[in-house]
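Q: Hi! First time doing this. I have a protein sequence and I read that you can turn it into a structure. Is that right? Here it is:
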Amino acid sequence: MSPESAPSSLARASALASASRRVGACRSGSASAANWPSTKHQFDPNTITLEIRPILEKDIGKWYFSLNPDLTKSVRGPDRHSGLGFEPGLKISYNLTKRLAPGLEYYAETGPIDHFRPLDQQHHLIFSTLYVNASPDWELDFAVGRGLTGSSEHWIVKWIIGRRFKF
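A: Yes, that's right. Below is the predicted 3D structure, encoded as structure tokens:
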């Protein structure tokens, strides 16, 4: 992906942060997700992309660790002829209580896996987070982040309001 066609780090961070977890739940293992997002051209010139997101996670006592090595492929847009893109994510949090878990999140967009972009054209972001298990049905995730490279946004505030559904 060329730097001028690179999607906003805010949009990428928001998309990468879409997977959440329950505070206090004891689990380990892995999951995966495949997404077929469609975006408006004003946010990302690649309007249709395929994302493959394995999620590797582990609880160790009150600590939670998650690794998300995201692979993306543009299907429609200027980068449709590029190879698979690599967008890793990492989360570490600590359960203070059954309802509150502060933590750190890291997201990156490095470019195609067969030829990473130069560091000054990559997006690297770090966030200080607070996860709130508000009720059995609602979860809140707040974060303030900082871009670590010149092509990343300088400051970002993000939040996710999640509703759990039972089937």
